């Protein structure tokens, strides 16, 4: 079961599987109050990738619920503050400045692959980006975004993650190809609405990126 929570920074979800409840992503720093209002208990926190807007509140929420934080091992150096992500362009610089204003607390994570969940490693946006498959649905982190065709207007569209924020664009495209092979019908993205998705749509996005 997947439910969406209302946190600041990114979409955060609660998943229940085999009697365990996990919080997936935590938004920017300062979401503990929202977490306390919306969650009774959790068995752990899973981070889809180490960007500030997804793991900024991880430490405060983990401390409150006395639970562990899990992420892909390729992401661990970033979470521990031993490596830095790539942020380029106007928006990238803005994000960097925002992060300095309210820095997140770094932390040590446990290996997400030790959990009894269907975790798919999808490197590219960051080295240790993951998707979590629940039935035919997937929490896809920032692999894909859902938004409007134009700024604030137009039909709902599925968009690839910006090259300015992707750690490795080639690996990112490979991960999209891997994702297209999965039996997933609905995505729950880190930003935007949950939507139905089909292989032809993903293939179209891949084709556009490869041009
Ligand atoms: Zn991201
Ligand atoms: Zn994000």
UniProtKB/TrEMBL annotation:
<dbReference type="GO" id="GO:0016787">
    <property type="term" value="F:hydrolase activity"/>
</dbReference>
<keyword id="KW-0479">Metal-binding</keyword>
<dbReference type="InterPro" id="IPR036866">
    <property type="entry name" value="RibonucZ/Hydroxyglut_hydro"/>
</dbReference>
<keyword id="KW-0378">Hydrolase</keyword>
<protein>
    <submittedName>
        <fullName>Zn-dependent hydrolase</fullName>
    </submittedName>
</protein>
<feature type="domain" description="Metallo-beta-lactamase">
    <location>
        <begin position="9"/>
        <end position="191"/>
    </location>
</feature>
<dbReference type="GO" id="GO:0046872">
    <property type="term" value="F:metal ion binding"/>
</dbReference>
<dbReference type="Pfam" id="PF00753">
    <property type="entry name" value="Lactamase_B"/>
</dbReference>
<dbReference type="InterPro" id="IPR001279">
    <property type="entry name" value="Metallo-B-lactamas"/>
</dbReference>
<dbReference type="InterPro" id="IPR051453">
    <property type="entry name" value="MBL_Glyoxalase_II"/>
</dbReference>
<keyword id="KW-0862">Zinc</keyword>
């Amino acid at each position: 079961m997947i439910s969406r929570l209302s946190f600041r920074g990114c979409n955060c979800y609660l998943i229940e599987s085999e009697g365990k409840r996990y919080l997936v992503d935590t938004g920017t720093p300062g979401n503990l109050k929202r977490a306390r209002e919306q969650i009774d208990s959790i068995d752990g926190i899973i981070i889809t990738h180490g960007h500030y807007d997804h793991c900024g509140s991880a430490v405060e929420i983990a401390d409150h619920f006395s639970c562990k934080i899990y992420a892909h091992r390729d992401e661990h150096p970033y979470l521990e503050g031993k490596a830095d992500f790539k942020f380029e362009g106007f928006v990238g610089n803005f994000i960097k400045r925002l992060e300095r204003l309210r820095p997140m607390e770094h932390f040590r994570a446990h290996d997400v692959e030790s959990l009894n969940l269907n975790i798919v490693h999808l490197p590219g946006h960051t080295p240790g980006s993951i998707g979590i498959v629940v039935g035919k649905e997937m929490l896809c982190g920032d692999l894909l975004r859902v938004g409007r065709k134009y700024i604030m207007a137009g039909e709902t569209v599925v968009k690839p993650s910006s090259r300015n924020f992707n750690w490795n664009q080639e690996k990112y495209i490979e991960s999209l190809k891997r994702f297209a092979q999965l039996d997933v019908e609905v995505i729950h993205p880190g930003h935007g609405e949950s939507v139905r998705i089909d292989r032809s749509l993903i293939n179209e996005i891949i084709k556009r990126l490869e041009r």
